[in-house]
Amino acid sequence: MDRTDLETYQVQLSQVEDALQAEPDNAELASLRTELQELISLTETALAQAAGAASLKVESSRKAASTPALAWSAGDECMAKYSADGGWYPARITSVAGSEQNRVYTVMFKGYDSTEQAKPSDLKPLPASYASTVSATKRKHETDEEKERKKKKNEKKLETRAAKAKEQNQKQATWQKFAKKSEKKGVHIAGVSGTSIFKTPDNPLGKVGVTGSGKGMTHVSQQSKHKFTPTVDDNT
């Protein structure tokens, strides 16, 4: 229905009313007048609703035009419209090109390596629920990384201890080899071939841990103090 239909119904109603004045008892004319009046009322209501909807649409468009677009930057996370199916999916902006009035963004959808160009109208912020999920996943990922870091640290400690033990064993083997060679050459080294410096000496007067224990102390002669005797001259 449009304004033309309304005007047509109004003209027809005027004609029917003129006819009823000439034939006031004509039931068909009276019924037609009632139908035309209802049509006019319905048409006016429809036209008023259409006008209100158009006004609301214009107002929304004006607000959208006055609202500045989000300033997206490379590295930002967003929801981007996929051109293949028109759906919105999580993505990351990899680059920004074009003029300030005609920006062109290159986005990479999560879980995919391919990129796609998008207009500002093809981007929107991530929903709060998605941000919370990402945050929880990130915390779990950090916890797993911490566990892996501790595991590697413990493994490194074990490797260091094993290396030190191996080095100690190598030094001990080298020392034992050296001691055996010395023993063959007649050089006695205490603590080798079952001989220990802490072995109980055969001499009952000896002491454990004292080399040459059981032997007497070396005698050192004590020198007496020299006395000076003055000489007397007989001619004096």
Automatic annotation (TrEMBL):
**InterPro entries referenced in this protein's UniProt entry, alphabetically:** Tudor
Keyword terms of this UniProt record = Nucleus
Task: Output the Gene3D superfamilies linked to this UniProt entry.
Answer: 2.30.30.140
Record's signal peptide: none
Query: Which parts of the sequence are annotated with region: Disordered?
Result: 116-236
Q: Where is the composition biased (Basic and acidic residues)?
A: 156-169
SMART domains, per this entry?
TUDOR (SM00333)
Top-level taxon in the UniProt lineage: Eukaryota
**Domain Tudor, which positions?**
71-133
What does the UniProt entry say about where the protein is found?
Nucleus
Q: Which Pfam families match?
A: TUDOR (PF00567)
The main place the protein resides is: nucleus
Q: What is this protein called?
A: Tudor domain-containing protein
Organism, by scientific name, is Lentinula boryana
